[in-house]
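Spend some time on this chain, tokens included, and walk me through the fold:

. . .
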Amino acid sequence: MDQDTQTRLEAAAFRGLVEHLQKRTDVQNIDLMNLAGFCRNCLSKWYLAAAKDAGVEMDYEQALSYVYGMSYADWKATHQAKATPEQLQQFEATKPLHAKISGHN
């Protein structure tokens, strides 16, 4: 496979993941972090890092809005539930497994 085709496929897969997460507002970020070690915020940080690497001017709020499909503040107000003590305990226990870009480890 040539590099251009690979890049297009990777971009399509990323767009599919973002679209899926925008539809699954019932899935909380803490659950994603606890199970997979990354969340929507991590995706936003990866997106922002890619933009900076490509010389595209973007700030974190813009990256968050792309991934969430709305402002982060609106998403939190509409969809984010308070984390349970169990979720917070698991979050702390899984920190070493979190994506480096998360800033948690």
In short: The helical segments are 3-23, 29-36, 40-53, 60-68, 72-79, 85-94. The chain has six helices and no strands.
